[in-house]
Amino acid sequence: MTTRELDPRTPVLVGVGQASERLDDPGYRRRSAVELAAAAVTEALTDTASDPVAVAAAVDTVAGVRQIENSIPGVRAPLGRSDNYPRSVASRIGASPARAILEVVGGQSPQHLVTELAATIAAGRSEVALLFGSEAISTARHLRTAADRPDFTEHVDGDLEDRGFGLRGILSRHQTDHGLVGMPSRFALVETARRARLGQTREEYALGMGRLFAPFTEVAAANPHAAAPTVRTAEELATPSAANRPIADPYTRYLVARDQVNQGAAVLLMSVASARRLGVPRERWVFLHGHADLRERDLFERVDLSASPASVLAAQHALDVAGIGPDQVTTFDLYSCFPVAVSNICDGLGIGPTDPRGLTVTGGLPFFGGAGNNYSMHAIAETVQRMRALPGAFGFVGANGGTMTKYSAGIYSTAPVEWRPDRSAEIQAEIDAWPAPEHVVHADGRATIETCTVTHTREGARTGIVVGRLDDGGARFLARNADGDDTAIDLLTVGEPVGKPVHVRSYDCGNRFSSLRKQL
């Protein structure tokens, strides 16, 4: 197909931009999240190679990715924040959009928004849409107690389509009461289950995680926007040290997403008709060939805790919509908040962990930076640039939200193609019908460990967490060790804990597990 044959409503990506700063940069400017996003948007407008003022004036829709400081109800922004983030950014570039969106929580947000707004353009309900996100987490932590700390509070009038937090199935009081207070501990449960399924020792698996992520560090080291641009070996990533302290077994600090970042990214979408009208050169156009958005069963409703088949289905369906297979993809960016998020997709698509094409275009969340919910906007921006440099090639972006709970995938190329709808809704109905194991809140009796982790604080305190199955009836439960019960933690740190018998007892404060030996 040639561009002349395209439906004028066909959506195209025509501009991308990124902005960043590190605390030790000579030109560090203490920019707010709004200012970082505006800088990225300004770059995206320039990237169109058209008149940026005319393009900004044509924007009818803006969509902002929710900052981490606005991702959990009741959390206070240390330096203040805008009460209408999308319109704060729009005002910086002279745009007056009719519609402003603040998306739900989750790393799937950037790719989901690209897919959603591309479909909106294809349906004729929008002409020019601007997507962006940003985080100033590093600056907020650095300056929150400073005498001259800035005030990032902004009030902006105008309608806002605030979609809420969208935390259903991602966070729960029951989980936090048992020590699952952050994503590292949740993903560690999945990682341990995968290690046990593969029959690997702790040492073998740790080195495998290091080998998976070592190439990511090389990409990050060459990326000017990376928060941690340092090349590290597999052994360095996998070995605990003073700088690489344990977080949640089997994770050390170098293997988890780095949230101390100051980063922003933006993507500009428009119809082919608008691109022609605004004079955007054809060589700037990149098309969304395939896409999918699926939601996995909630963590404790999954039959197999070691994987997320729904995430794999989303990745495969995006490829199917594009009409290609994994072997035809030139670049990948697999969401890499934790190793298992990458391994899960590699396992499902048959991609080797050391595939010579690489598995990231940014450097990944632990090394480029885990810019809150907005990481994949950077991956999309990098992919668009690479596709322009490789006309006709295909780039894959996979974006994860929750504990491999929400997955959005996109396939990009300069090859012209009209909008192709996906079958995500049909596939989602199948996923929702999958069987789920019985899960009990209160557990008592003999049981078997299904998966586990031990979390570590900076001060060295440890908490043992298990997901188990009751011997009587097989119901799944969540439990932690009783305070001061080091014997229970030893059970999880010596040998293979998965499959070991334990005793669990319920209290008003939750379930507590102990070794059977202690009970005798």
Structural notes for this entry:
- This protein is α/β, with parallel strands linked by helices.
- The chain has 16 helices and 17 strands.
- It has helices spanning 33-47, 52-58, 85-92, 109-122, 137-143, 173-177, 183-198, 202-221, 234-238, 272-277, 309-322, 339-349, 375-389, 424-432, 486-493, 516-519, and strands spanning 11-20, 61-64, 99-102, 128-136, 161-162, 246-248, 251-252, 262-271, 287-295, 331-334, 395-401, 406-413, 445-456, 462-470, 476-481, 501-507, 510-515.
- The strands form four sheets. The protein has a six-stranded mixed beta sheet with strand order 1-8-4-2-3-5, with helices on both faces. Strands 13-14-15-17-16 form a five-stranded mixed beta barrel.
- The longest helix is centred in the middle third of the chain and has 20 residues, at 202-221.
- The model has no long low-confidence stretch (mean pLDDT 96).
DSSP helix fraction: 25-40%
Query: What is the approximate shape?
Result: globular
Task: Evaluate the radius of gyration.
Answer: 23 Å
Strand composition percent: 15-25%
The main pleated sheet reads as: 6 strands, mixed
- Termini separation comes to 74 Å
